């Protein structure tokens, strides 16, 4: 399988590479486990991409989903927040800047 880089970032003391097969809608973000300000102790490392983060967060909250904080602009430009499932696993919800 041939993959290509979607995003190669080194913002805010973090470094990650997002890769996917050509034409795929799903991508993998690869990073070091000792990345500053990133904890993998409760998070599952799964990010979900949306084109309406505010609407999705409102819908989540209406259904009782625990949203960690209001969506905020990340240092790399995307808007994002975290939410938890009933078992306490955290997921990253992100709306790309472009």
Topology:
Layout: E1 4-9, E2 16-20, E3 28-31, E4 43-49, H1 53-62, E5 66-67, E6 72-73, E7 79-84, E8 90-95
Parallel strand pairs: 4-8
Antiparallel strand pairs: 1-2, 2-3, 5-7, 6-7, 7-8
Domain Glyoxalase/fosfomycin resistance/dioxygenase: 28-91
Pfam families: Glyoxalase (PF00903)
Organism: Lentzea flava
Provide an overview of this structure.
- The chain is mainly beta and 98 residues long.
- It has a single domain (4-95), classed as 2-Layer Sandwich (Signal recognition particle alu RNA binding heterodimer, srp9/1), CATH 3.30.720.
- The chain is built from one helix and eight strands.
- The protein has one helix at 53-62; strands spanning 4-9, 16-20, 28-31, 43-49, 66-67, 72-73, 79-84, 90-95.
- The strands form two sheets. Strands 4, 5, 6, 7 and 8 form a five-stranded mixed β-sheet that branches.
- The relative contact order is 0.19.
- The model has no long low-confidence stretch (mean pLDDT 77).
- This is Glyoxalase/fosfomycin resistance/dioxygenase domain-containing protein.
- It holds the Pfam family Glyoxalase.
- Residues 28-91 form the Glyoxalase/fosfomycin resistance/dioxygenase domain.
Query: What is the total number of structural domains?
Result: 1
The helix content is: 10-25%
SSE order, as H and E? Answer: EEEEHEEEE
The 3D shape can be described as globular
Average pLDDT, to the nearest integer? Answer: 77
Counted by DSSP, the helix tally is: 1
Largest sheet: 5 strands, mixed
Structural class: mainly beta
β-strand percent reads 35-45%
Spatial separation of the terminal alpha carbons? 27 Å
CATH topology, by name, is: Signal recognition particle alu RNA binding heterodimer, srp9/1
Let me know the number of strands. 8
- Tell me the name of the CATH class: Alpha Beta
State the low-pLDDT regions, or none: none
User: Would you identify the CATH architecture?
Assistant: 2-Layer Sandwich
* Radius of gyration from the alpha-carbon trace, in angstroms: 14 Å
